[in-house]
């Protein structure tokens, strides 16, 4: 059965993360429902250029307006397997933590939590103050997975694109789907390359 995943892109820096998540989900044959927050529109244009939004939207099976609270993904009766918010701004994280449902992205995340489905949040901010941390604790207690986009340095990636793809693949794996060859997995420490022994 085809997996169905909601992908949210919020206004934090890192629009390329949402794009990479959609690319991987498309490659593994998942059906995707995309919602881009109002704040993300400016970030996407700045980071990916004037055609950035279109380059993201064409990767999704279906795209929904951020103010369309009548969209299918706003209801728990619309079955999805998981939701990934990449990147997840602190504003969006706070909205999810407090269940405001003030946008389609926040409402879809709220639905994901109430239906006990996987919600992966690539929380993007640094440094963090206590309010950020408390919001992360709150959503974690509700069942979300907070996964800041931290590079896996052990994978010895050669550039930013490799790092983005690895972070996106890990998000897909955290959502309960197999990202296949897109994820470089830890195979153990090779004693001959570490000088051990």
Please supply descriptive tags for the structure shown above.
197 residues, alpha/beta, Rossmann fold, six-stranded parallel sheet, 8 helices, globular, disordered C terminus
Structure description:
- Strands 3-2-1-4-5-6 form a six-stranded parallel beta sheet, sandwiched between helices.
- Helix 6 links the parallel strand 5 (118-123) and strand 6.
- The chain has helices spanning 15-27, 38-48, 52-57, 90-97, 104-114, 130-142, 160-174, 191-194, and strands at residues 4-9, 31-36, 62-64, 82-88, 118-123, 145-146.
- Helix 1 packs across helix 7 (160-174) and helix 4 (90-97) packs across helix 6 (130-142).
- It starts with a strand and ends with a helix.
- With 197 residues, the chain is of the alpha/beta class.
- The protein has a single domain (4-177), classed as 3-Layer(aba) Sandwich (Rossmann fold), CATH 3.40.50.1950.
- Helices cover 41% and strands 15% of the residues.
A few lines on this structure:
This protein is of the alpha/beta class. It has helices spanning 15-27, 38-48, 52-57, 90-97, 104-114, 130-142, 160-174, 191-194; strands at residues 4-9, 31-36, 62-64, 82-88, 118-123, 145-146. The protein contains eight helices and six strands, in the order E-H-E-H-H-E-E-H-H-E-H-E-H-H.
CATH superfamily: Flavin prenyltransferase-like
- What count of helical segments does DSSP give? 8
Q: Terminal Cα separation, in Å?
A: 48 Å
Strand arrangement, major sheet: 3-2-1-4-5-6
> Which overall shape is indicated by the principal axes computed on the Cα atoms?
globular
What is the CATH architecture descriptor?
3-Layer(aba) Sandwich
Task: Report the sheet-strand fraction.
Answer: 15-25%
Task: Round the Cα radius of gyration to an integer and report it.
Answer: 17 Å
Q: Biggest sheet, open or closed, and with what strands and sense?
A: 6 strands, parallel
CATH C-level name: Alpha Beta
CATH overall fold name: Rossmann fold
**Low-confidence runs:** 191-197
SS-derived structural category: alpha/beta
Number of domains: 1
Number of strands: 6
Mean pLDDT: 94
The percent of residues in helical segments reads 40-55%
Helix and strand pattern:
EHEHHEEHHEHEHH
InterPro entries: Flavin_trans-like (IPR036551), Flavoprotein (IPR003382), UbiX-like (IPR004507)
Pfam families: Flavoprotein
Protein name: Flavin prenyltransferase UbiX
GO molecular function, one term: flavin prenyltransferase activity
